[in-house]
């Protein structure tokens, strides 16, 4: 595995418009490409938080992974961060980074955690469906209705004001689901106090009603929040059971093959 750091995807985003590209060995025209998006309530953290997850996808599943920063909502209000994620996705789809030109970049997977899970959904569901192989949301804000009731303050920061019902609807992934949306996979701790698991149940129910695949992996742990990860410095590694659940989704719904171990 090779990591190329701080590759620019957007001049508009300034110093935030960069990402690290994780490249597996033995790449070819069938090597899949993924976009990785960190969390932090839209307003904090950076790409280092997803570094171990990007490495897992690259090392274990043979994916080229672009792990990005984006403009944070403390200084740049919505839709700046969401626009940045879309810009990064389009750079991948267009093959604008020389190192991915020979890879299978015409259809990408999008993955994120917490608010990055929300951005993953808002990116993957707003791109043309034929350009997205799958979306993974890890403990994500998958429906704004339930999450806003738990933590309205992060929405005030995101919008720069107390959001209206129309504001919340405009960033609700549920509203962007269509019958031809790409397959989705969500993981969530059932009693998560940070992002309520009801967000995932709402998304899954809406997807089912449209005939869209939305797999879910629910689990219980004793930690008070953030129970999907093990901290390794500034980054996080997913628990083994969550990695296995995501691997199964990617192998069966995204890649259509089982990677060599």
- Count of individual beta strands: 10
The percentage helix is 25-40%
**What would you report as the Rg, rounded to the nearest angstrom?**
17 Å
Order of helices and strands: EEEHEHEHEHHHEHEEEH
> Structural class, from helix and strand content?
alpha/beta
Per the CATH scheme, the topology name is: Rossmann fold
Number of helices: 8
Q: Give the overall average pLDDT.
A: 94
Largest sheet: 8 strands, mixed
CATH homologous superfamily? Alpha/Beta hydrolase fold, catalytic domain
Beta-strand percentage? 15-25%
- Which architecture would the CATH scheme give at its second level? 3-Layer(aba) Sandwich
Q: How are strands sequenced across the largest beta sheet?
A: 1-2-4-3-5-6-7-8
Number of domains: 1
N→C terminal distance: 14 Å
- The CATH class label is Alpha Beta
Uncertain regions: pLDDT < 50 for 5+ in a row? none
Structure in words:
The chain has helices spanning 51-61, 80-94, 115-124, 144-150, 152-159, 165-170, 198-210, 240-255, and strands at residues 2-8, 18-23, 32-37, 64-68, 104-113, 132-138, 184-189, 214-219, 229-232, 235-238. With 261 residues, the protein is α/β, with parallel strands linked by helices. A hairpin with a 2-residue loop joins strand 9 (229-232) and strand 10 (235-238). 48% of the residues are buried.
